[in-house]
From TrEMBL:
This is Solute carrier family 40 member. Keywords: Ion transport, Membrane, Transmembrane, Transmembrane helix, Transport. It comes from the Eukaryota. May be involved in iron transport and iron homeostasis. Residues 19-30 have a biased composition (Acidic residues). InterPro entries: Ferroportin-1 (IPR009716), MFS_trans_sf (IPR036259). It is a multi-pass membrane protein. It comes from Sporothrix schenckii (strain ATCC 58251 / de Perez 2211183) (Rose-picker's disease fungus). The chain crosses the membrane at residues 84-102, 288-306, 312-334, 391-413, 451-473, 554-575. Residues 32-42 have a biased composition (Basic and acidic residues). It is found in: Membrane. SUPFAM superfamilies: MFS general substrate transporter. GO terms for molecular function: iron ion transmembrane transporter activity. Residues 1-65 are annotated as: Disordered.
Length: 607
């Protein structure tokens, strides 16, 4: 029997073209030979026919590779330590400045504004570092930069506290270890340039929850305007303050470098091909951020209630002690994932010879020197398909509608107690944390793009309700600048707290879009350009309360904040229509979906 003859029977059987009659009418001898050959080719005890095996369903697709729990744990530990120390230092610096300059907010404002401007100016340099430097080198540089900046800042604050204590001792002697003021009833002239008297643990607790130091309430409660007599006036004081500001800028840049590199680059590589795992990891890391945002300031303020210097040493101690663990946890993740060790695309057209660590740092230094302003990455950022969701997220930072210093100051001016503000901020944080569980499920059910529009709609809905009630209820200003009535402020606070679910839900959706769509070689440049806009809008938010500084004028910053949310929603709506072709599913049958055609003009594709 020839090979061609032997091959005809299986083909006929597989295609179903050979009928029973054709088999009976065929050549008997040929059928016998085929039968014998078929049994000879089959292994023993194999009763299934070849055609049955061929007709078996195809193997299911290979599931995405799991993200190892051990690696995830080390990644979370490193991220927690970085975020914890950054949040603790950020709030501790406010307490230290309030202790050194108790009767003026000017140094604190300068400190915060310069820090934000530095984040904008050097965003391009940070992005170049992420895209061009070895991943482990970049993250380790951010860790060391943060720790050195905190150490320098603590040394400077210790010297400033010592100088303030010496100045106070010549005036009548105040405890040099005293924390920021907790006496909210009097503001005597003896404390004009001194550390204020110790307060209770309860006062420090509510100071942490409200996001303000107790010193900021002294003059407002007393009904008198603060006198800026404690500003740095001598060359030594001015020099120390300048060093503290520079160190704060370095710490801020290190924090941005670490955050962007890990959340926008490392997580994408670690979860390559596993989108559900990527969303879970991103949600858990955001959960860590929010936890540190609440508990970190609370912890350091409880220490500061006993002694400002104790808080200073605690800040330095936590930062130093966590260095080794954070340094080696991130190194273990790097070494166990070969994909992280691949050379970034920006280096592919360079010399073939491998670079040493020294050479890598040298090239990084030259890249930083050439890129001091975030202009080079703007064309890439603006023209990228993910620009609209990213810019919409940055625009949401132009807001006073969060339980930070501006809104807290307004609530206290309306008659809220620190206890009430603390409870409101806690409720808001609970809503924010709930978004880290809600958003991944929303994205899994509706998709990332639709999840984003739902989240922004939720945020806009609750802010609209709170703002409408706030404007509708009377809130006349009293002669001393305090706003009468808390009903409108309460409605605004409730609306803000519930809107945070949508805010952080959209944050996770936008982050997922950026992670999925930005190329490996451009993740750093794109994400740091976004961070630059975030800092710009945050500074503009502070400008609104400088322009409308009185509590009875707070309604205008509220309007600006609400307008920013509506603008962000409009930008993202344009992105959704461009991506999907329509904004919502029509309930009509396909033949009658004239509404879809009127809104889109083409059939959309669900994402």
């Amino acid at each position: 029997m020839s090979a061609s003859t032997a091959g005809r029977v299986p083909d006929g059987l597989l295609s179903g073209e050979m009928s029973v009659e054709e088999g009976v009418e065929g050549d008997v001898e040929q059928g016998a030979e085929q039968h014998a050959e078929q049994h000879a080719e089959q292994p023993p005890h194999q009763s299934a026919a070849p055609e049955a095996m061929e007709e078996a369903p195809e193997d299911p697709p290979v599931p995405p590779p799991p993200f190892p729990t051990a690696l995830a744990t080390r990644l979370y530990i490193s991220h927690f330590l970085s975020t914890w120390n950054s949040r603790v230092f950020e709030f501790a610096a406010v307490l230290f400045l309030a202790a050194v300059f108790p009767d003026t907010l000017l140094p604190m404002s300068v400190y915060a504004v310069v820090r934000g401007v530095a984040a904008m100016v050097f965003a391009e340099a940070v992005g170049a570092c992420i895209d061009r430097v070895d991943r482990l080198v970049a993250v380790r540089a951010s860790i060391l930069g943060q720790r050195l900046a905190v150490a320098v800042s603590c040394g400077v604050f210790w010297a400033m506290l010592a100088k303030a204590t010496a100045s106070t001792a010549t005036r009548g002697g105040v405890n040099d270890a005293a924390p920021p003021a907790a006496n909210l009833t009097t503001a005597s002239s003896t404390t004009a340039n001194a550390l204020l008297l110790p307060g209770s643990l309860l006062d420090a607790f509510f100071s942490a929850l409200t996001g303000t130091s107790a010193t900021s309430s002294v003059s407002s409660t007393a009904g008198t305007a603060p006198t800026p007599t404690a500003t740095p006036s001598t060359p030594v004081a001015s020099g120390l303050f300048a060093v503290a500001v520079i160190a704060a800028c370095v710490e801020k840049l290190g924090s941005i470098l670490n955050l962007v590199a890990v959340e926008r680059d490392w997580v994408v590589v670690l979860t390559e091909g596993n989108a559900p795992a990527r969303r879970r990891v991103s949600a858990r890391m955001r959960r860590i951020d929010l936890f540190c945002k609440l508990v970190g300031p609370l912890t350091i303020s409880l220490v500061a209630a006993a002694s400002t210097r104790a808080a200073l040493w605690a800040t330095l101690g936590m930062s130093t002690a966590s260095l080794v663990a954070e340094y080696f946890c991130i190194a273990v993740v790097y070494r166990r994932v070969p994909a992280l060790r691949r050379r970034p695309a920006a280096w592919d057209d360079s010399a073939v010879a491998p670079r040493t660590t020294t050479t890598t740092f040298w090239h990084a230094t030259k890249a930083v020197a050439r890129r001091l302003l975030p202009f080079a990455s703007l064309p890439l950022y603006v023209r990228h398909p993910a620009f609209l969701p990213s810019f919409a997220l940055a625009l949401l930072y132009l807001t006073v509608l969060s339980f930070s210093g501006q809104m807290v100051t307004f609530l206290l001016a309306t008659g809220y107690t620190p206890l009430s503000v603390g409870l409101a901020r806690t409720a808001s944080t609970v809503c924010e944390l709930s978004a880290t569980w809600i958003a991944p499920r929303l994205m899994g059910r509706l998709g990332v793009v639709r999840g984003g529009i739902w989240s922004l709609s939720w945020q806009a809905l609750w802010l609209t309700a709170g703002t409408a009630v706030f404007w509708g209820l009377p809130s006349a200003a009293s002669p001393d600048g305090r706003v009468g009535g808390t009903a409108g402020a309460t409605a605004l606070a409730v609306g803000v707290a519930l809107s945070r679910i949508g805010l952080w839900g959209y944050d996770l959706c936008a982050q997922s879009l950026v992670q999925d769509e930005v190329a490996d070689a451009h993740r750093g440049a794109f994400s740091t350009a976004e961070a630059a806009f975030q800092n710009l809008f945050e500074v503009l938010a502070y400008a609104t309360t400088i322009l409308w500084a009185r509590p009875d004028q707070f309604r205008w910053p509220v309007v600006v904040s609400a307008a920013a949310v509506y603008t962000a929603a409009a930008l993202y709506t344009a992105f959704v229509r461009r991506r999907r072709g329509h904004l919502f599913h029509s309930p009509l049958p396909p033949a009658q979906r004239w509404l879809d055609k009127a809104f889109s003009g083409r059939r959309g594709v669900d994402v």
